[in-house]
Structures are given as C-alpha cells and as structure tokens.
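Hello again, I could really use a second opinion on something today. I've been staring at a protein lately and its backbone has me curious. You're getting the sequence in one-letter code plus the fold written as tokens. I'd be grateful if you could look everything over and explain what you see. No rush at all, and the record is pasted right below:
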Amino acid sequence: MTALVMFKLADREFALDVTCVREVIRMVALTPLPSMSDIPSEVMGAIIVRGTPVLVVDLRKRFGLPVQPPNAN
C-alpha cells in the first residue's frame, strides 16, 4: 500500500506519493528572485529552510488553475 500526501488547490484534490515529499512547512515570506529567462514563470521566489535556499513553485500556475496570492493556508 502506498502512503499519500493529499492537498487541495482551487477546490480540486491532488495527491503525491509520500516518498516524493521531504516535509510540509507553513507558508513564510518569500524572497523574490530577479527576472531571469531561465527561471520558469511558476517559480514564485525562494525561502530559507534550515540554512538552505529552496525555490517555491506556484502549483496552481503549473497545473493551469486560477492563480491567487499566497496565504497562510
């Protein structure tokens, strides 16, 4: 049996195999990145997790769903 991490975007449910997820953390302030042609448009910015920079991707944009600003939920 496969364990899943389930989440909701735009009233649609999605799931990932738990082995593809390192951790789930609360939303924090994003550091914007400079405009660069090699950064995909769905990259919203970066955060620092225990001293390591991590890119934050807008899955709504990636999946073609209506985009909305990030919030604590």
The beta strands are 4-9, 12-17, 43-49, 52-57. The chain has a mean pLDDT of 90.
